Amino acid sequence: MCADTMRVWQVDRASRTSSYGRPSWYSQAENVPGSRGNDKRLADAPLQLVRHDWAQLSWRYPVAFMSYRRIEPVLQTEYAQCGFVATAMAASTVGRRPNIQDMFNWAYRQGFTNVGDIFNISHLKALCDRYVRVPSTVMMFPSKEALIADLIRGKLFLVPYDAGYENGAPSLYNGHKAHWAVVLGALLMRPYCPPCISRLPRLAGNKPIYLSNNNVYLSHMYDGMDFVFAQHGWYAEPDLWSIETLRESCWQLNEVDPRNAASYVLPRGGIRQGLRGKVLRLDL
C-alpha cells in the first residue's frame, strides 16, 4: 500500500486521548502501563487499535489475522532518547524494566552517546544485550515475507527510520528526523476464507479478527494487505504502518541534521553506515 493510501485511514495520534480524557503525551512518567487503565487493555492494545480502525481496514479485505507481542509503552520525555526508550519497551516483553537514566549513563561511559543519540545499530545491540538479555541479530531490512514470518513467530524488531512531524509515522527526511521504533507484530487483511478460520482462536467477538499463524500466512501470502504494529516513544498506543513505507524510510537514512551533528556520536561513515537499511532482530 502506498503512503498516500495509508494517510486516508491512518488515525491522527495527536487528537487521540487516553482513558483519562487527556492527550496520550500528557504523562511525564517513563513507564506508563497505567495510562491504558489496566493490564488487560495494555496487553490488547493492538487489538483495540484494529477495532478502532476497522471500517477503514476492512473496506476491501473483511478478515483480519494478527499476531503480536505484549509490550509496555514507555514515553520519551527528552528530545534524544528514543533508542533507550525502544530498548526499555523491548525489555518489557521479557519482564524487565530498565531505567532510562541508568541505560544512558552506561552508554555514555561506553562512548555510544553524548545527548541520548544512538546512531550506530551496533551500539543499540550492545545496549539490548545488556538490558534485554535475549539473543539479537543486526541484519539488513528483511523482505516482507521474512519480516512477517518472524513477527508471527514472536520475534521483535528495533527499526531506525525518519519520523513524521505529526504522528511519528515513517517519513522521508534523508535521516534528519531519525527515530527508533519497536516493531512488535503483524496484521494481515485477507478475503473471507471459512477453511482458514475454522480452527483459529477468535480475538474479537463482534469482528472477524483471528490469531494468525505461519500456515495461514504461507497459504495466503499474496491475497491481501499487510501491516506491522509499531510502538515508539511519542505515544502510549501502538500504530499500524505499511511495511514498504517503513522500509523506504529506513533505507533513506543518509545523514543527521547538519545543525545538530556536532552534538552526536556518529560512526565512521555517519548514519548511512550506522543505520541505513539495518534493523535489530530480537529472538524472543
UniProtKB/TrEMBL annotation:
Source species, domain of life: Eukaryota
InterPro entries associated with the record: ACTMAP
Keyword Protein transport: no
One example of a Gene Ontology biological process annotation: proteolysis
Catalytic activity: N-terminal N(alpha)-acetyl-L-cysteinyl-L-aspartyl-[protein] + H2O = N-terminal L-aspartyl-[protein] + N-acetyl-L-cysteine
A matching Pfam family: ACTMAP-like_C
Keyword NAD recorded: no
Keywords from the named record: Aminopeptidase, Hydrolase, Protease
GO molecular function, one term: aminopeptidase activity
Family indicated by similarity: Belongs to the ACTMAP family.
Name of the protein in question: Actin maturation protease
